[in-house]
Specification:
With 293 residues, this protein is an all-beta fold. It contains one helix and 23 strands. A nine-stranded antiparallel sheet has the order 8-9-10-11-23-19-18-15-16, with no helix packed on it. Strands 5, 13, 14, 17, 20 and 21 form a six-stranded antiparallel sheet that branches.
Length: 293
């Protein structure tokens, strides 16, 4: 499978055509530090999957649409598909996935998904376009990011040396999961503070799922060095924060336009929280950025 490289005098990025997945982000101007988790299959075999056409898990991995039942795995199928090249130029690349007979067995919609990457100085801009090419059928979908960052970044640091830093003091209420589904319960994990220290215990009940938050920037920062990763995401209604479990040396920062199903919901795709409806011929666009230091 093809790998596309973006490079400037400060950074080098690799994007895999398989899943249009960001697989490397290196500071070449300093010490060659790699920021993206290397997808060690013994821990978690992904780097930064694109979540489409759903985000999170469905109850029993099934849904209904127009009287028919379909199966979709957690986070959908785009992350395991071969994307085709649309455009490649210095510092940028665009990749595309279209529906076919195989996707329609799981997801009976026409779609075109274009993922773009553009490297500028030490910032990678990631763009999504979801187009509905149908002349008459609405497109129901969700889409999300799932980039995993090495944590710790340096060999003499630990996971607990890191924290999430916010642009202003925040109160965070997580929405709890049971078996990957929202169970209706919440828990306050931060009250009017601008830093959330990382511990593995924080993730012992699965991902931190946030709604209705009031920040558009989040920094993964070390308390022992100046190394950090900063994510900017405007207009995303949901955010996930996750690591695999005790000892996993990475953490994910996941802006989402979509969310897992709830325990006991109807299973009807149109009624699922976070599902967006795109009219025939229309395009949905969203973007976020990753800066490394």
């Amino acid at each position: 499978m093809s790998v596309y490289h973006l490079e400037n005098d400060r950074c080098r990025v690799a994007v895999n055509a398989h899943g249009a997945e960001l697989s490397s982000f290196v500071r070449t101007d300093f010490d060659g530090l790699e920021y993206i988790w290397p997808a060690d299959p013994a821990v978690w075999a992904r780097h930064a999957p694109v979540l489409f056409p759903i985000v999170g898990r469905l109850s029993d991995d099934t849904y209904q649409h127009q009287g028919q039942h379909y199966r979709l795995p957690q986070h959908g199928f785009a992350r395991d598909q071969a994307f085709e090249l649309v455009e490649q130029a210095p510092g940028r690349v665009q990749l595309r996935l279209r529906d076919d007979a195989q996707t329609r067995e799981q997801y009976p919609f026409a779609f075109e998904l274009i993922i773009g990457y553009r490297l500028q100085e030490t910032t990678l801009h990631v763009s999504w376009q979801v187009r509905n090419p149908s002349a008459e059928q609405e497109l129901l979908f969700s889409i999300g990011a799932h980039p995993a960052f090495r944590c710790p970044l340096l060999p003499d640091e630990t996971f607990e040396d890191y924290a999430f830093r916010f642009e202003h003091p925040v109160t965070l209420e997580r929405h709890l999961l049971s078996g990957g589904l929202l169970n209706g319960e919440t828990e306050t994990i931060l009250a009017d503070a601008s830093e959330l220290p990382l511990t593995y215990e924080l993730f012992s009940q699965d991902a931190l799922v946030l709604k209705h938050y009031d920040f558009t920037q989040l920094t993964l920062a070390s308390r022992r060095s100046a190394r950090h990763v900063q994510i900017q995401f405007n207009g995303f209604p949901y955010l996930g924060l996750w690591t695999k479990g005790p000892g996993a040396p990475f953490v994910c920062i996941e802006p989402w336009h979509g969310i897992a199903s709830s325990v006991g919901d109807s299973g009807e795709l149109r009624d699922k929280e976070g599902i967006m409806t795109l009219a025939p011929g229309r395009t949905f666009a969203a973007s976020y950025s990753i800066s490394v230091g």
